[in-house]
Amino acid sequence: MSTILTLVVALVASAHTEIPACTVANPFCKESLAVGNFSFWYFRSYSLQTANPNIQRAVIVTHGLQRNAGDYFVATVDALHNESDPTLLVIAPHFKGFVHGSSTCNDPLDPGELALVVHRAK
């Protein structure tokens, strides 16, 4: 019985380290990070929720005014050939913004989500 248990543990551990990198900006590759009572979303090539001893380096890429973190994530993963490098973690935070009265800066926000909120003077 202990031999079977050892084999199962070894298989689970090896399967964990063989998880392929996320290379697309879809919900599976997106996680939320809590910061106190708030949180923000980010795309990642490997989950930050699970320990991964293979990771040796990380690249954090931030988006511009269009707040298109997914596009930046995919471009960085592609440029670094991240799908073939299990030692490299790519993270692209999605910093949302909301400017009252703006048609271009009005990201929908989840409750407690961190964002830049601007109230324009009248």
Give a structural overview.
By secondary structure, this protein is of the alpha/beta class. The protein has one domain. The chain has 2 helices and 6 strands. It has helices spanning 2-17, 69-79; strands spanning 30-35, 38-44, 57-60, 88-94, 96-99, 115-118. A 4-stranded mixed β-sheet has the order 1-2-4-3, covered by helices on one side. Strands 5-6 form a two-stranded parallel sheet. Strand 3 (57-60), helix 2 and strand 4 (88-94) form a beta-alpha-beta unit. The model is unreliable at 1-16 (pLDDT under 50).
Supply Rg. Answer: 18 Å
The largest sheet is:
4 strands, mixed
The poorly predicted ranges are 1-16
Overall, the morphology is: elongated
Domains (count): 1
- The SSE order reads HEEEHEEE
Structural class category: alpha/beta
In what order do the strands lie side by side in the largest sheet? 1-2-4-3
Distance from first to last alpha carbon: 74 Å
Number of strands: 6
Oligomer: single chain
The percent of residues in helical segments reads 10-25%
Explain the layout of strands and helices.
Elements: H1 2-17, E1 30-35, E2 38-44, E3 57-60, H2 69-79, E4 88-94, E5 96-99, E6 115-118
Parallel strand pairs: 3-4, 5-6
Antiparallel strand pairs: 1-2, 2-4
